[in-house]
Design a protein that fits this description.
single chain, Serine Threonine Protein Phosphatase 5, Tetratricopeptide repeat, 13 helices, 2 strands, about 70% helix, elongated
């Protein structure tokens, strides 16, 4: 039996959530009836199809037959999360953690659920616990960095994004997010350096061009800012109207 995995990346420019199903992490084998396996696998299949009510029904049956299955509680929690039933999802993640206190995934996804409820301190606490359990959990650093950013704790956010990059030097979103925090701190050279790296790793990353263009604007490097505006537009993106207005006024161009 496979355990579902909901990987989450919170971006300072936009919220990006990736769902990776069929994760290679297998459910621990326990003395259980074949029916438990059947309901669990059916629930997983329904979840993958976005049929969350049916998934929940099957996970309910799996839990009835094996009340000690932390994986079933965890997966049911993901289904409730996707239905926007955050309190019920948290209850299931709580149970999964009670049954398996070393479940870094349960902490990270409970943290995400708290984030959606605006409970940022609890989110940080859960991400910190996930990192304690798994110091190489890159997304935990990235997500915690985003919450620190939302709390205005920019230096802590930068520290977390830096750690994520250390663990995964090809992590495009970590460079973009760190660059955006530098941008908010008016450290435009550092911001541009990070946006450059993000673009090097992903030449089609519209947000990185958009953010870099804004940084060039504040550095009064208007030609470079216009180059990024045109790149954003060529890639099918939309430039913020206020940036365009200010850039036109400052540069004297009417593009």
């Amino acid at each position: 039996m496979k355990r579902l995995d909901m990987r989450t990346i919170l971006s300072a420019w936009t919220l990006i959530i990736f769902f990776t199903t069929g994760c290679a992490k297998a459910q621990r084998q326990q003395p259980e009836l074949e029916n438990v396996r059947t309901y669990y696998n059916q629930g997983t299949a329904y979840y993958n199809k976005g049929q969350y009510d049916k998934a929940i029904s099957d996970f309910n049956k799996a839990i009835e037959l094996n009340p000690k299955s932390d994986d079933a509680y965890y997966n049911r929690g993901l289904a409730y999360y996707n239905k926007g039933q955050y309190d019920t999802a948290i209850s299931d993640f709580n149970k999964a953690i009670e049954l398996n206190p070393k479940s870094d995934d349960a902490y990270i996804n409970r943290g995400l659920t708290y984030y959606n409820k605006g409970q940022f301190d609890r989110t940080i606490s859960d991400y910190t616990k996930a990192i304690e359990l798994n110091p190489a959990y890159v997304d935990a650093y990235t997500n915690r960095g985003y919450v620190y950013y939302n709390k205005g704790q920019f230096d802590r956010a930068i520290s977390d994004y830096t750690k994520a990059i250390e663990l995964n030097p090809a992590y495009v979103d970590a460079y973009t997010n760190r660059g955006y925090v530098y941008y908010k701190k008016a450290q435009f050279d550092q911001a541009i350096s990070d946006f450059n790296k993000a673009i090097e790793l992903n030449p089609g990353y519209v947000d990185a061009y958009h953010c870099r263009g804004a940084a060039y604007y504040y550095k009064k490097e208007y030609d470079k800012a216009w180059d990024d505006v045109e790149k954003v537009q060529a890639l099918g993106g939309q430039v913020h109207p206020e940036i365009l207005k200010r850039l036109r006024e400052a540069s004297g161009r009417g593009r």
